[in-house]
Design a protein that fits this description.
The protein is α/β, with parallel strands linked by helices. The chain folds into three domains: about 1-30, no CATH class; about 35-155, Pyruvate kinase, C-terminal domain (Pyruvate Kinase, Chain: A, domain 1, 3-Layer(aba) Sandwich); about 175-320, DNA integrity scanning protein, DisA, N-terminal domain (YojJ-like (1, 3-Layer(aba) Sandwich), CATH 3.40.1700. It contains nine helices and twelve strands. The chain has helices at about 1-15, 20-25, 40-50, 70, 110-125, 175-190, 205-210, 235-245, 280-290, and strands at about 55-60, 80-85, 100-105, 135-140, 150-155, 200-205, 215, 250-255, 260-265, 295-300, 305-310, 315-320. The strands form two sheets. A seven-stranded mixed sheet has the order 7-9-8-6-10-11-12, with helices on both faces. The chain has a five-stranded mixed sheet with strand order 3-2-1-4-5, with helices on both faces. Helix 5 (about 110-125) runs antiparallel to helix 6. The protein starts with a helix and ends in a 14-residue tail after the last strand.
């Protein structure tokens, strides 16, 4: 009898919610918070954590948020606010909020896919640097609510982005160029071409040296055209890249975004550790070329749709292809 009373008192102490015990709240059972109401809780907790760990920035996936302003407009906050979204209409939610915006590609990604894209774009834009503490909060947009908080130190989190230097990107590559290429590669990985999966390699930066370590497999379709007509930001150029994605060899892109060549065989030999299972010759050659040049390489795997990014001869991150949200076997991280 005495043991039962002690146990009941212990449960009361451990289950205080808003100053009330579980039995005072709803009898013997607590009322669970429905997932649709998790967003408010997740945002409040993320901001509390950011303040407690003295975070340098908080990254929020806006796709799962109805209204972030009341939470992120907290008085006295000392961290940057980075918002990631794929919809222009979402930006209206942040009106009046001092924040940095990162546009996501309009493709379906896993939770960590959205995080990795925002993380990479944030680093390339100089919003976060090695050693910064970052609090990330988000979820799967198709569910309509937040369910994930992650705290990490930039440069230490090898599962998200791994790099040994101050930045995973060459200094002379502009952030908008890398972001544009990353978006294009993710679209190609997700959509394929005419319903079929594709495998492609893009090498960005240090073009003179990259060209020295490579040769043409086929006639170069980009040769002889005015440079102002070959910029990766132009819709017609992006469509052309997708059209030529079936050509063997790599695309070579200058650090200012001008596409120089397609169908380029990368000659550099790879002498590093064996590639992870599922990665083959295309990935080895991308690792090799970034090991001998000051470039970054993005590789789409034809078999899996995985996007792998190389720098300095090593993998800095991979972004997995997620199945359609309507598909029963949608990827869950």
């Amino acid at each position: 009898m005495e043991t039962d009373q002690l146990q009941r008192k212990k449960e009361d102490r451990l289950s205080v919610i808003g100053g009330k015990t579980l039995r005072e709240e709803s009898g013997e059972e607590s009322r669970k918070i429905e997932p649709v109401n998790w967003t408010e809780l997740m945002l409040k907790q993320a901001i509390s954590i950011a303040n407690k760990v003295k975070a340098d920035a908080i990254l929020v996936n806006m796709e799962t948020v109805a209204d972030i302003v009341p939470f992120l407009k907290a008085e006295g906050k000392k961290f940057k606010v980075i918002l990631v979204t794929k919809r222009q209409i979402s930006l209206k939610k942040a009106t009046g909020l001092r924040s940095n915006i990162i546009m996501l590609p309009d493709v379906h990604l896993t939770r960590d896919g959205y995080l990795k894209f925002g993380f990479l774009a944030g680093i390339s834009k100089g919003l976060v640097s090695k050693g910064d503490i970052l609090v990330c909060v988000g979820g799967k947009p198709e569910k309509g609510y937040m369910d994930t908080i992650m705290v990490l130190k930039v440069g230490d989190e090898s599962e998200i982005v791994s790099f040994a230097e101050d930045s995973p990107f060459p200094e002379n590559i502009k952030p908008d160029i890398f972001e544009s290429l990353l978006t294009l590669a993710m679209e190609m990985a997700y959509e394929g071409r005419e319903g079929k999966p594709i495998g492609s390699t893009f090498v960005l930066g240090d073009h003179e040296k990259v060209l020295q370590y490579s040769h043409q497999l086929v006639f170069n379709p980009f040769q002889g055209h005015p440079e102002d007509a070959l910029h990766i930001s132009k819709p017609e150029v992006r469509e052309t890249l997708k059209e030529f994605s079936s050509i063997d060899g790599a695309f070579i892109i200058r650090n200012d975004g001008v596409v120089l060549a397609a169908g380029r065989y990368l000659n550099a030999a790879y002498h590093g550790e064996p590639m992870p299972q599922g990665l083959g010759a295309r990935h080895s050659s991308a690792a090799a070329i970034t090991g001998v040049t000051d470039s970054v390489a993005l590789v789409i795997s034809e078999s899996s749709g995985r996007l792998t990014i190389f720098r300095g001869g090593s993998i800095i991150t991979t972004i997995e292809k997620a199945t359609s949200p309507a598909h029963k076997s949608a990827t869950v991280i």
